[in-house]
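Weekly structure sync, notes
Attendees: PL (lead), two postdocs, one rotation student
Agenda item 3: pending single-chain targets
PL asked that the sequence for the first pending target be pasted directly into the notes so everyone works from the same version. It is reproduced below exactly as submitted, 199 residues in total.
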Amino acid sequence: MTASLTTRHARLPAVDDLLPNSENQRGLALLRNWEAARQALADPNDRAAMKAARVDVCASLAPAEPYEVATLIESLSVMYPQQARTEADDRIRARTWIADLADYPADAIEAACAQWRRKDTAFMPSPGQLIALIEPIVKARQALKNRADLVIDGPVKRTAPNPIEAVAERDPKVLEGLQELMGSLSARRASEGWNGGEG
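Predicted structure, written out during the meeting:
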């Protein structure tokens, strides 16, 4: 496989510019500011822009395809000295990189590779070193997605189920048993003069 050394994306992402190639910059700008986003909900055009930006943010979190990871890592590796390796070694190395970077978006991996090349180092990074450069972008995108969800959809209303009621719905005898147990504990406390640890 021959890797292309050209940048695949017009502009690479950074923590302060998470989706530089998005056509929804207005929506992204609104989502970055909590108060502006909340106020913009009243304007149908701004709301539509934020919804379109949310689609872009969600898409930006999609993991890279294995061939994309392999191509990016191969492109990075030609920049550094390498030990002699067999084809079997290369396959194992490629599988390891693909497995380690499987959850990350291609443009974030590409940005991390570019950042590593600019460092003053003569060696290829480990997967962990590259992940340390990828993570801030991915975490910032996830936070932006969470904010978009909250602004556009509102807070998720969650009610914690009562575990006793949930079990009782499946088996009413459990509730009867618990009520009997609570009654016997109350009777025991009263007969022993237990006052809840006071005195």
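Discussion points:
- The chain has two domains: 25-153, 163-192.
- The radius of gyration is 27 Å.
Action: rotation student to compare against the earlier draft before next sync.
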